[in-house]
Backbone:
């Protein structure tokens, strides 16, 4: 390329950060643009050269530059004004082009969820009375909704009486109800040192404390649980034992039984957050079946079917505990939305919910296969998990890695989002479901590999 051919060489200084690597050149152009804006090399209001000039400078065809500008506009990096040109925007970027951070189920291959939703709502409105859908029914849910919840939870054991079931507007609402009804402000809740971010936010919002318990390759260690319980005087244990978020570890049955016995010895209540079991063909027995007398089991449909269904079911040790949960629901979210909950329960009763979950499981398995082919050693495969964990030791820190990835149009989740205490463990969670297609996932993973392979990330820490 002969920069002397350009009208103003300084207009293209930002392209000095154009990286080499396997990513398509249009994405490398967008990455260089994002990095230049982040560093201040490009300022809001700066005008970019015409696309034809840029294509000639780079030695690429015009469609490549046009595609890069289209993606940059999607990310709110640039804006175009007819007759004036293309300018750097003043606002912050929107979500990166390639999202490996949002842990949602992938679109199930061979099924159109929007079409199923439209058909399902239309049928529900025809079959249900307007009074039922337009009225309040606060608390643990209607008898029919609780019966559907019992049926959904039966996959993890025997079907429970509806008196032990509550329905809520998502797992977070039910977890909040458990914490508010079973703990007091200032109480300590035991959990893994890396845990679900929603629990961290919930504890902070309600004035509860979290204490991390040591773990090994099988999950939380019973001996560490005993020591932490006595040290903190805790009464509640939070577990996410199946396809753990963020490490993707599934706790084996033996460890579950050991922890259930230890919880009994210490008289701990167990809060079992179980959004991912439907993604396994043969999940280990739930704590709900191993320690039913002390377990509050929460299962959401959002992670195995679709975030559209903000519907979750809770099984409690007894009817009295459900009444306590119901009071907390009334004081927070009031009730589960009737229309969405009605659709979710109808899908459970008809078997469609199970069919969709099976299709999501198959797509998750296909995406795991893609990840195994592309990612380097260190990303442990996790059957049909929606995410993977990559431990980091030394440099780079995951927070620094996340910043670099974001400037290159890639979103990942660093360990700080999951850490109960700073400095306990470092790593990256890579979510596989948010990419709109397998091709987009491949593109995102290759971008991640490119960043991991960067020489600057292997330098020793400064002394």
Residues:
């Amino acid at each position: 390329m002969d920069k002397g051919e350009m009208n103003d060489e300084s207009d293209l200084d930002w392209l000095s950060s154009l990286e080499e690597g396997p990513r398509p050149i249009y994405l490398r152009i967008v990455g260089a643009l994002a990095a230049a804006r982040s560093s201040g090399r490009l300022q809001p209001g700066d005008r970019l050269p015409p696309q034809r000039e840029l294509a000639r400078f780079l030695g690429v065809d015009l469609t490549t530059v046009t595609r890069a500008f289209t993606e940059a506009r999607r990310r709110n990096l640039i804006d175009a004004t007819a007759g004036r040109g293309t300018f750097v925007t003043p606002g912050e970027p929107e979500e990166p082009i390639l999202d490996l951070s949002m842990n949602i189920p992938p679109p199930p291959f061979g099924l159109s969820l929007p079409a199923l939703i439209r058909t399902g709502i239309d049928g529900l409105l025809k079959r249900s009375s307007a009074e039922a859908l337009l009225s309040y029914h606060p608390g643990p849910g209607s008898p029919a909704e609780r019966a559907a919840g019992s049926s959904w939870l039966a996959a993890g054991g025997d079907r429970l009486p509806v008196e032990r079931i509550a329905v809520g507007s998502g797992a977070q609402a039910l977890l909040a109800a458990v914490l508010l009804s079973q703990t007091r402000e200032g109480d300590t809740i035991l959990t893994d040192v890396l845990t679900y971010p929603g629990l961290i936010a919930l504890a902070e919002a309600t004035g509860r404390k979290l204490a991390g318990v040591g773990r090994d390759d099988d999950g939380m260690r019973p001996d560490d649980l005993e020591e932490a319980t006595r040290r903190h005087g805790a009464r509640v244990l939070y577990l996410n034992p199946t396809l753990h978020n963020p490490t993707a570890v599934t706790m084996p049955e033996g460890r579950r039984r050991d922890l259930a016995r230890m919880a009994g010895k210490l008289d701990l209540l167990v809060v079992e957050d179980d959004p991912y079991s439907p993604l396994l063909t043969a999940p280990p027995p739930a704590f709900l079946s191993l320690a039913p007398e002390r377990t509050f089991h929460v299962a959401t449909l959002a992670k195995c079917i679709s975030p559209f269904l903000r519907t979750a079911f809770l099984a409690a040790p007894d009817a009295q505990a459900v009444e306590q949960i119901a009071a907390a629901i009334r004081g927070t979210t009031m009730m589960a939305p009737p229309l969405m909950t009605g659709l979710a329960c109808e899908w459970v009763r008809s078997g469609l919910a199970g069919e969709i979950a099976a299709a999501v499981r198959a797509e998750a398995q296909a995406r795991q296969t893609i990840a195994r082919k592309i990612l380097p050693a260190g990303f442990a495969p996790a059957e049909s998990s929606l995410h993977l964990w990559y431990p980091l030791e030394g440099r780079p820190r995951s927070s620094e890695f996340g910043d670099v990835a974001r400037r290159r149009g890639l979103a990942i989740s660093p360990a700080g989002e999951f850490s109960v205490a700073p400095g306990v463990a470092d790593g990256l969670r890579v979510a596989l479901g948010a990419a709109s297609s397998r091709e987009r996932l491949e593109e995102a993973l290759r971008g991640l590999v490119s960043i991991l392979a960067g020489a600057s990330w292997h330098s020793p820490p400064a002394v």
Q: What stands out?
A: The chain has three domains: 3-94, 113-351, 355-456. The radius of gyration is 25 Å. Confidence is low (pLDDT under 50) at residues 1-10, 457-463.
